[in-house]
Design goal:
Layout: H1 2-14, H2 20-39, H3 50-62, H4 67-86, H5 113-120, H6 130-143, H7 147-152, E1 158-159, E2 164-168, E3 174-178, H8 181-193, H9 195-198, H10 218-232, H11 240-253, H12 258-265, H13 270-273, H14 275-291
Antiparallel strand pairs: 1-2, 2-3
Length: 295
C-alpha cells in the first residue's frame, strides 16, 4: 500500500496541484492508517472493508485524537479509496458511507466593552508609535475588518468626511464599511502628526506603515497587539479576530440587525454571521438568571 500511497501523492501534487502542507496532511493521515492495517496483517487495499475502517476509527477515538483530526483522517481515507477505485485497483469504496464525527463549533472569544476600552487605551500618544498603534486598534474595533484588510488599506481608502473605509476582503471583493467619529479622530491624528515622520520614501500608499517606512505587515501588527494585550492584563489570548468578534457581538447586543452585520463583516453567507447570535443569546440568558427574582 505504500507504493499506492506514493502514486496517490504524485497524483495529488501533479494532477490536483495541492499545496505542500495539504499533501503532508494527506500523507500523515494515510501513513497512520496503513501502519494500523499492517499491524492487523491487512496489506492489500481490496480486502479492506467497512468493519476494518470502523475499528481504525475506534482506535483513533480511544487514543484521544481530536474530533477535527478524526474527520480529516476519514476524508483522507475516502479520497484515497476514490483514487484506487478510479485506477481500477478496487471495485468499490469501503469508506464511501463512513460517517464523520460531528464537530461542535466553538463560540469565538469576545471581549467585554470594558476590556476593549482597557486594551484600546494602552497606546499613549507621547510614546514611540503610540499614535499609530492607537489608530490601528481603534479602526480595527470600529470597523470589524480582518487584520489582512487592515494592513492592506491605502490612504485613499480612508474617507474621514463621509465616515467610511473602502476595504478589500477575501477574493479581493471590495466593500464599504462605516466607521465612527472616535476612530476617525485617532486616524486623522496619526496622519497629521506621526505618519510622515515614519516614511522613508515619498509615494508610499499604505495607510499604516512600520518603522522601515513601508506597509505594516500582519506579523508586525500581531506583535503590537500582543504587547498591548499583555499590558492591559486581559485574561486569555487576544488576537486581531478577537476584536472582529467583539465588534460583531457588541453591535448585535445593541440592536443591530444580522444582515447589516453580515455586510460589514463581508460574509458571503449569513450562516457564518449567525454564530454571533448564539453569543448574544447566551448573554441574554446570563442577564436573565442574574436579574429575574424567580430565575
Amino acid at each position: 500500500m505504500q507504493k499506492l500511497l506514493q502514486e496517490y501523492s504524485n497524483y495529488l501534487a501533479v494532477e490536483k496541484g495541492l499545496s505542500k502542507n495539504t499533501l503532508e496532511s494527506y500523507r500523515r493521515d494515510l501513513n497512520k492508517f496503513i501502519t494500523f492495517m499492517d499491524k492487523r496483517k491487512i496489506k492489500e487495499p481490496e480486502i479492506i472493508d467497512r468493519e476494518s475502517l470502523n475499528i481504525f476509527i475506534g482506535e483513533l477515538k480511544k487514543n484521544g485524537n481530536a474530533t477535527s483530526s478524526i474527520s480529516r483522517c476519514i476524508a483522507s481515507i475516502r479520497s484515497f479509496f476514490n483514487y484506487l477505485l478510479q485506477e481500477g485497483v478496487i471495485e468499490s469504496n469501503p469508506a464511501l458511507e463512513l460517517e464523520s464525527p460531528r464537530i461542535e463549533k466553538r463560540l469565538p472569544r469576545v471581549l467585554t466593552t470594558q476590556e476593549v476600552d482597557q486594551l484600546l487605551s494602552q497606546p499613549k500618544p507621547g510614546e514611540h508609535n503610540g499614535l499609530r498603534d492607537r489608530a490601528m486598534l481603534e479602526l480595527l474595533y470600529a470597523s470589524g475588518i480582518r487584520v489582512s484588510e487592515l494592513v492592506s488599506l491605502n490612504i485613499t481608502d480612508f474617507d474621514p468626511l463621509v465616515g467610511y473605509l473602502r476595504c478589500r476582503g477575501k477574493g479581493m471583493k471590495e466593500r464599504i464599511v462605516p466607521i465612527g467619529s472616535i476612530a476617525i479622530n485617532y486616524v486623522n491624528d496619526y496622519l497629521d502628526k506621526s505618519r510622515a515622520k515614519q516614511l522613508k520614501k515619498n509615494g508610499e500608499p499604505a495607510l499604516f506603515v512600520n518603522h522601515h517606512g513601508s506597509r505594516m505587515t500582519r506579523q508586525g501588527f500581531w506583535k503590537i497587539l500582543k504587547k498591548y494585550a499583555r499590558k492591559s492584563n486581559i485574561k486569555g489570548d487576544v488576537t486581531p479576530h478577537t476584536l472582529r468578534h467583539s465588534f460583531a457581538t457588541h453591535l448585535l447586543e445593541n440592536g443591530a440587525d444580522l444582515r447589516s452585520v453580515q455586510e460589514m463583516l463581508g460574509h458571503s453567507d449569513i450562516s457564518t454571521t449567525q454564530i454571533y447570535t448564539q453569543i448574544t443569546r447566551r448573554k441574554i440568558r446570563e442577564v436573565y438568571d442574574k436579574s429575574h427574582p424567580r430565575a
